[in-house]
Design brief:
Number of strands: 22
Strand content: 15-25%
Radius of gyration: 24 Å
Mean pLDDT: 95
Helix content: 25-40%
Low-confidence stretches: 13-21
Length: 551
C-alpha cells in the first residue's frame, strides 16, 4: 500500500511538472530568434507560405536599427531592392503622403534629400528617409496584418538553452524558462547568439588580407578614407607633446599592428541620434551623471586646429529632425570601446551599451556647454535637442545601439571583397548588395611621430556596380548544423560585410532565408541540400532582385 502511494505521488508530481513544462513550451514550423528588420521579413515570408512561425525577440521594440534611429537609409542602388524590403519603403512612402504625417514641417519645405537618391521616389512609390517612430509603426503594422506571433523580451539561455540532436536544433530555451521547438531556425540577431550557441563556426574581428586574398581587410594603418581622421598633427597627451603626462581619453597605448594583418578589433559602434531643431519638439541635451569634460579634450584640440565640420552628418529626415551619424576624427563613434561586445555576457553588453550612451550624451553636452567649443558651433548645436516625440519610453534616446559588426559565420561559402567587386560568379544569388565597402574606425593610436591618428575607416565602391549574395553564405557548414539559416551575421569577411551590412539588404536576406527554410521543411531536407532552382522560383515570384537589369 505504501509503495502504491509513493507511486501515485510520483505520478502526480510528474503530471504537474509536465503541465508546467507544457505551459511554457511553444512549437512552430520555424522559430526566428531576433527582433530586427530581417526577423520581420522572414516571419512574413513564412506566414505567406502558410507555415507557422514564432519570433522570439530579446527586444521590446521591433525593427532593430531601421526603427532605432537609422532613418537616412543606406540604400546604395535602390533598383536592386525588391520583395518585402521594397514593400517596407513603399509603406513608408504611403505614410508621408498623408498630410497629417507632417506635424513639424510642411511637406513642401522638406528637402527630399537621400543618400545619392531623392528621399521620395514618386515613380516607384517608395520613400527611403523616415522618422524612427514611423518605421516602428510599419513593423507593428506587419505584425497585425500577418498575425505574427511574437514573444518579446525573451533572451536565449546562451549557456545551456539549446538542444541539438544529429546536427539539428531541436529547441531553444530563454532565460524566462520558455521553450521553443521548431523544424527550422533562423538567427536574425545582430550578435549571432543562436548561431554561436548551436556550435556553428564564426569569426570575430578582421581577417588578414592574405586569408582570402583581399586588399581592404586586416589592419589598415596609413589608409585614410572619408574624412574621419586627423588631418593635422595633434598631440594625444594630457600635456601636449609630453608622454609622461599620460594619454588623453580615447587614445590607445597599444601598437596598431602591421598593415594587412588580422586582429581582434571591431569597427566602432554608435547610436544614430534623432535630433530636432523645432522649438516645440526639442529637449535640452542632458548632462550624464559621470560627465567629465576632460574626456573630450581631444575634440577641443581638433576644434583648435580649425576643424568646423560638426554638422556635416546631421542628415535631414522629415519633420525637422535628423539621423545624426559619425563625422570627423572625434565624433559619435566610440572608437575602440566595443571589442568584447560580441562574446560578452548580457550583463556586460548592457554595460557597454550604457558606456556608449554616456559617451554620446557627454559629447552633446560638451558641444552645447564647454567654453572650448567655438562660439559658432555652440550657437548652432543649441538650436538642436533630442526629439521630444521619439523614443518616449527611453528618455528620448534610441533603444538600439548600432552594432555594425559582431560575429560573422564561417559557413558553406564566405563572401569576400572579390564577390562585392564582381570578380567571382555567384551561382545561387538570393539578393543583391550595392553599398560601398564601408568600415568605420577600429582604433585610435599614437603614430611613430608622436601624434594621434585613427585607423580602420574604409570606403571603397564596388567596381562593377551591384553584386549578388550567395545562398550558401546564409547557411552553416553541414557538419555544424543542418536546420539553421543566418541572414544577418552571415558568412562574410570583415570588409565584404562592410557593404552587405545595410538594413535593406538584411530585409532582403531575411525573406530569402525564410523561403529556403520552407523548402527544407516541405522536402524534409537539410538547408544545405535545398535546390537552388526551387528557391529561385520562389524568390522571383516574390519579386526579389537576383541580378542586375540590362541597361
Amino acid at each position: 500500500m505504501k509503495s502504491k502511494l509513493i507511486s501515485l505521488i510520483f505520478l502526480f508530481q510528474y503530471f504537474l511538472l509536465s503541465m508546467i513544462y507544457a505551459k511554457d513550451s511553444y512549437q512552430a514550423d520555424v522559430i526566428i530568434y531576433g527582433g530586427t528588420s530581417a526577423a520581420i521579413t522572414a516571419a512574413i515570408q513564412i506566414k505567406k507560405s502558410n507555415k507557422s512561425v514564432i519570433i522570439v525577440s530579446p527586444d521590446q521594440h521591433l525593427g532593430g536599427l531601421s526603427s532605432g534611429g537609422l532613418g537616412y537609409s543606406d540604400t546604395g542602388d535602390k533598383s536592386v531592392i525588391g520583395g518585402l524590403a521594397k514593400d517596407f519603403y513603399h509603406r513608408i512612402y504611403l505614410h508621408y503622403q498623408n498630410q497629417q504625417a507632417w506635424v513639424w514641417q510642411e511637406k513642401s519645405a522638406y528637402g527630399n534629400k537621400g543618400q545619392g537618391t531623392p528621399a521620395m521616389d514618386g515613380a516607384a512609390r517608395t520613400m527611403w528617409i523616415f522618422e524612427p517612430h514611423v518605421a516602428e509603426q510599419v513593423f507593428e503594422d506587419y505584425v497585425k496584418d500577418y498575425e505574427l506571433k511574437i514573444y518579446r523580451n525573451e533572451w536565449l539561455d546562451r549557456e545551456d538553452g539549446l538542444v541539438k540532436k544529429n546536427k539539428q536544433i531541436v529547441s531553444i530555451r530563454t532565460l524566462s524558462g520558455k521553450v521553443f521547438k521548431g523544424k527550422q531556425f533562423i538567427d536574425a540577431t545582430y550578435e549571432g547568439d543562436l548561431m554561436a550557441a548551436a556550435g556553428v563556426q564564426y569569426h570575430v574581428g578582421r581577417e588578414a588580407n592574405s586569408q582570402y586574398g583581399e586588399q581592404w581587410n586586416g589592419v589598415q594603418v596609413g589608409v585614410l578614407h572619408h574624412d574621419h581622421y586627423f588631418k593635422k598633427d595633434i598631440s594625444p597627451y594630457v600635456i601636449p607633446n609630453d608622454p609622461s603626462s599620460g594619454l588623453l581619453f580615447g587614445v590607445s597605448k597599444d601598437d596598431p599592428g602591421q598593415y594587412g594583418a588580422a586582429d581582434h578589433r571591431l569597427q566602432a559602434y554608435c547610436f544614430r541620434l534623432c535630433l530636432s531643431n523645432h522649438p516645440e519638439n526639442r529637449l535640452p541635451f542632458p548632462k550624464p551623471a559621470n560627465y567629465q569634460a576632460s574626456n573630450y579634450e581631444l575634440l577641443a584640440r581638433v576644434f583648435a586646429s580649425g576643424w568646423r565640420e560638426t554638422f556635416y552628418k546631421f542628415d535631414p529626415i522629415p519633420n525637422r529632425k535628423t539621423d545624426t551619424n559619425n563625422n570627423g576624427p572625434f565624433s559619435t563613434d566610440f572608437i575602440g570601446m566595443n571589442y568584447d561586445y560580441p562574446e560578452a555576457s548580457y550583463e556586460r553588453r548592457k554595460e557597454i551599451i550604457k558606456e556608449h550612451e554616456d559617451y554620446q550624451k557627454g559629447w552633446l553636452y560638451f558641444l552645447a556647454n564647454d567654453p572650448k567649443v567655438p562660439a559658432e558651433v555652440q550657437k548652432e548645436i543649441n538650436t538642436w535637442g533630442l526629439a521630444k516625440d521619439e523614443f518616449k519610453d527611453n528618455g528620448h534616446w534610441p533603444h538600439q545601439l548600432y552594432i555594425r559588426e559582431a560575429r560573422r559565420m564561417v559557413g558553406t561559402y564566405v563572401m569576400t571583397e572579390h564577390d562585392t567587386f564582381g570578380e567571382r560568379k555567384i551561382a545561387d544569388p538570393v539578393g543583391m548588395g550595392s553599398y560601398a565597402l564601408d568600415s568605420h574606425n577600429t582604433q585610435r593610436y599614437i603614430k611613430a611621430d608622436g601624434f594621434v591618428q585613427n585607423e580602420g575607416d574604409i570606403g571603397v565602391k564596388p567596381k562593377n556596380g551591384p553584386y549578388q549574395i550567395s545562398y550558401r553564405s546564409l547557411i552553416p557548414k553541414k557538419e555544424d548544423c543542418t536546420n539553421l539559416l543566418v541572414p544577418v551575421c552571415l558568412s562574410s569577411s570583415h570588409i565584404a560585410f562592410g557593404s552587405i551590412r545595410m538594413e535593406p539588404v538584411f530585409m532582403i536576406l531575411g525573406q530569402s532565408a525564410a523561403a529556403a527554410a520552407i523548402i527544407a521543411i516541405d522536402k524534409k531536407l537539410p538547408v544545405q541540400e535545398v535546390s537552388y532552382g526551387d528557391l529561385e522560383k520562389v524568390l522571383v515570384a516574390e519579386q526579389q532582385v537576383l541580378a542586375k537589369k540590362n541597361p
